[in-house]
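User: Can you recover a sequence for this backbone? Please restate the input before giving your answer.

Assistant: Of course. Working from this structure:
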């Protein structure tokens, strides 16, 4: 069994996705649109399965998480409070020659000799362009190459017979200032806000600007109070949402990995601050060992909750066919963390183009709800009667210590948010007094996953090729997508052995009807049975069922049995039709 080489794998997966209807380029008949992808029949099923599995494991199988389905366009103030209007940007630089746009921080650092020019003159007309320009050449390239590029640059500025002026050279190490494709100097990097803007209502002016949401998370924060009041949940609890997000990425790349329209599956899990946990339970439990910490406990502080969610998410991936060994945990370093985050773990997957982020699990402190409280003027705090009672029973020293600690945390947040020092001290004091009365703003642990990245991970992980040689020495290479049965788009293929025998066809249709009420089954009677198996292998269908003459009773003891074939090893076994549904359901759920 051969696995394709890494550098070929992406090409093969992309081509399979188009050929079998997993993913198509959006608007392909008009030449496509960069960064947008459509899911075809198999892709749509695969995606639906993934989202359903996430939703089921995150909400329906838990008592402490509820769901939300919010709008894509929300009040623009939400994106000011969250910081997206001011800071959700990537550094962007354009090639001065071709105008091609790059994400400045993602350009491969280059070394070599930079050829600088102070300007150029037209030898015929004497016209001068006094604009400095430069071209980077890797070691060993002749200066003519730089002069050629520079000539093109000045030609584009109206000179015909270009005479370059003031050439000087400079050794350059690990620079991101030049276009890696042609050596041309780039513009200075400048921030580019990634939110898509639109206008709400008939007047397209600044008063009516709105944004397509760049993440699903903010709607959860904005609806926190409504959900709390209507769901009968109590902190700690979570709100989950699956939905579209939009980012005007400077350089969408790697197929669906970095798209401009994509889907997220996000959970905001609200927990009490550690000071409240200590007041309630007498201590704050912290991680003692790596791995899953077990069932949640009342005395868990934010670190244990964070560890818990990292481990829950790894278990989820494992359960749908991305084994723990295909993932890496990357703990962001202090200087990489957002200023409000206490810890962030990126779950990385080994994509064919590199090990890259699949999901981030962030401990975001109480930043989000605090921001919405400040910006909306509506309280986002919760009241816990038990905390109020517990606080009353604390000794004075513990009260003081917890109160000081909470005061300092709140003061730090307020100062960072730009609140003047005196007011920040006043407000933080009020918050600390509130804690003593059982009030606090919940902290948040946020596991945030991308649906499309997960689909891409599942596809590349499942892709394999099998080469077989027949009796005549002819070799054939076939693709098998080894999806976990839970995510596989089609769960079972149902075939009559022969298409021209009405009794076989009728029985196969009957079996198909039995199964399709519970799962995606696919009836196929076209071509040789081997070809039909091969088509399902390529679609990732884990099981196929064939109805033959024994099913009809040709061998009496085999009446009403079928051949069940396993995709991964081609094994076949006989199974009563009456046992089929139970057998399959057990494996696909
Ligand atoms: N609320 C937190 C948040 O949005 P993020 O790391 O920016 O965090 C979370 O995004 C996840 O969304 C990523 O781990 C990734 O799986 C997915 N994602 C982000 N940008 C994406 C893009 N341009 N295309 C596809 N998926 C993307």
């Amino acid at each position: 069994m051969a696995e394709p080489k890494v550098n070929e794998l992406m090409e093969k997966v992309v081509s399979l996705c188009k050929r079998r209807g997993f993913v198509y380029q959006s608007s392909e008949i008009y030449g496509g649109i960069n960064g947008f992808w459509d899911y075809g029949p198999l892709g749509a099923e695969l995606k639906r399965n993934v989202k359903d599995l996430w939703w089921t494991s995150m909400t329906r199988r838990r008592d402490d998480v509820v769901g939300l389905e919010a709008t894509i366009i929300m009040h623009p103030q939400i994106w000011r409070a969250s910081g997206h209007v001011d800071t959700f940007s990537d550094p962007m630089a354009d090639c001065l020659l071709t105008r091609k746009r790059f994400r400045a921080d993602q350009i491969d650092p280059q070394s070599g000799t930079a050829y600088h020019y102070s300007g150029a003159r037209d030898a015929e007309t004497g016209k001068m362009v006094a604009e400095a320009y430069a071209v980077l050449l890797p070691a060993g390239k002749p200066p003519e190459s730089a002069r050629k590029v520079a000539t093109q640059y000045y030609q584009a500025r109206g000179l015909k017979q270009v005479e370059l002026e003031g050439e000087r050279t400079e050794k350059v190490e690990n620079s991101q200032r030049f276009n890696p494709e042609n050596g041309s100097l780039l513009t200075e990097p400048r921030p580019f806000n990634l939110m898509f803007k639109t206008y709400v209502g008939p007047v397209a002016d600044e008063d009516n600007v709105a944004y397509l949401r760049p993440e699903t998370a903010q709607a959860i924060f904005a609806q926190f109070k409504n959900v709390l009041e209507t769901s009968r949940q109590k902190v700690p609890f979570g709100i989950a949402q699956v939905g579209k997000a939009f980012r005007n990425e400077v350089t969408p790349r790697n197929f669906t990995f970095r798209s401009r329209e994509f889907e997220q599956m996000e959970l905001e899990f609200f927990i009490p601050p550690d000071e409240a946990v200590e007041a309630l339970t007498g201590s704050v439990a912290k991680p003692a060992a790596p791995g899953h910490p077990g069932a949640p406990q009342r005395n868990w502080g934010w670190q244990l909750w964070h560890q818990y969610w990292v481990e829950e998410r790894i278990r989820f991936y494992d359960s749908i066919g991305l084994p723990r060994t295909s993932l890496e945990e990357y703990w962001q370093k202090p200087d990489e963390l957002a200023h409000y985050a206490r810890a962030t773990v990126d779950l990385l997957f080994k994509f064919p183009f590199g090990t890259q982020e699949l999901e981030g699990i962030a401990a975001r402190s109480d930043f989000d709800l605090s921001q919405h409280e400040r910006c909306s003027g509506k309280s986002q705090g919760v009241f816990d009667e038990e905390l109020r009672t517990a606080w009353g029973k604390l000794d004075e020293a513990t009260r003081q210590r917890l109160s000081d600690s909470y005061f300092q945390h709140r003061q730090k947040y307020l100062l960072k948010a730009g609140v003047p020092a005196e007011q920040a001290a006043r407000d933080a004091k009020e918050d600390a007094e509130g804690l003593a009365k059982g009030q606090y703003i919940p902290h948040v642990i946020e596991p945030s996953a991308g649906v499309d990245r997960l689909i891409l991970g599942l596809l590349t992980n499942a892709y394999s090729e099998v080469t077989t040689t027949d009796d005549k020495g002819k070799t054939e290479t076939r693709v098998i997508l080894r999806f976990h049965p839970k995510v596989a788009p089609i769960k079972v293929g149902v075939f009559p052995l022969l298409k021209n025998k009405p009794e076989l066809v009728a029985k196969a249709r009957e079996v198909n009807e039995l199964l399709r009420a519970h799962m995606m089954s696919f009836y196929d009677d076209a071509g040789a049975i081997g070809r039909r198996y091969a088509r399902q292998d390529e679609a990732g269908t884990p099981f196929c069922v064939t109805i033959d003459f024994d099913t009809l009773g040709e061998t009496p003891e085999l009446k009403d049995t079928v051949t069940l074939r396993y995709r991964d090893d081609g094994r076949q076994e006989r199974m009563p039709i009456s046992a089929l549904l139970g057998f399959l359901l057990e494996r696909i759920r």
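That completes the design. The radius of gyration is 30 Å.
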